[in-house]
Design goal:
The protein is of the alpha/beta class.
Length: about 100
């Protein structure tokens, strides 16, 4: 579901719908990659069309926890609809790189 790219800080999410059914796999793979890095992590959401509130909540909880340890999570290449969702929820500033 989450694969490495040529850039060591960018990981591609290869799932069209991130919903409650994909949550256990997504969380375990995300935890593995977060444990193996010490800096910023960028998740490439090019393939993602839909994301559930459960996944957003999980990402937000991980981001807040990791920020205290000096690690950042950013989302890249979000579709316009996903960017709009983050904006409506006031989460754009938390996940989109400056």
């Amino acid at each position: 579901m989450i694969t490495k790219t040529q850039n060591p800080t960018v990981f591609k999410v290869n799932e069209k719908d991130l919903d409650i059914l994909s949550m256990p796999i997504f969380e375990s793979e995300l935890d593995l990659l977060l444990n193996s890095t010490a800096n910023s992590v960028y998740l490439d959401f090019t393939e993602v069309e839909e994301i559930s509130s459960a996944i957003l909540g999980s990402l937000l909880a991980k981001k807040m926890k990791l920020k205290k340890m000096g690690t950042e999570i950013h989302l890249l290449h979000l579709s316009n609809s996903l960017q709009r969702v983050l904006k409506i929820l006031n989460l754009s500033e938390y996940f989109l790189p400056a």
